[in-house]
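Subject: Probable phosphoglycerate mutase

B.,
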Amino acid sequence: MAEVEYRQSAFTPPATATDILLVRHGESAPAVPGKPFDLVDGQGDPELAPAGREHAELVGRRLAAEPLDALYVTTLRRTAETAAPLAERLGLVPRVEKDLREVHLGEFEGGLFRQKVAQNDPVIQRMHAEGRWDVIPGAESPEALRERVTGAVERLAAAHPDQRIAVFTHGGVIGEVMSIASGSLPLAFLGASNGSISQIVVSGGRWIVRRFNDTAHLSGGPDQQPAALS
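Prediction pasted inline below.
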């Protein structure tokens, strides 16, 4: 009688689950002191830098053969510009999910956050130590961020059972999704590279982490460095 063997099986999403690829937008235009970014609903809205347009092209090539049922972007143009090459290849029109826009940075909006990070400002040090965005005056609380991100992901999952979708979003949001899914400290997953791909599978109330910060398609590979949050 042949010996019974049980091989390790490949991951299979549960029935009715939604497979969500989270793509961080490409590198956006540099912040210049005295020349704040245009704002959309109070948030900085820079366009992609030349390097960011290259990131968008590389993402488009990487995902062109994936069976994607829908593309989503946020209200901030850097996500739509990053999604554009893939949308053209697939013939899909991106939909907008406003609640996956970037963390609101209060008085550090418009590009000032980057300057404060570069200077290792005491407020930035406190932000990391306490794990709270609202250490920045006027910034979004972690509770408000978690509520809107959770609601957005749950809406997308409800709209796309047994489907795979790509969501072009932001570093702070990707970090929050990963924190929710893994139960990690609030800012543990900050650092997704521009143009990187992360992935969760949502099945009911369960969020399964499949990958974080996949940069195999980018010229820097796994050593690609994360840019500032926004």
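DSSP finds six helices and eight strands in the chain.

T.
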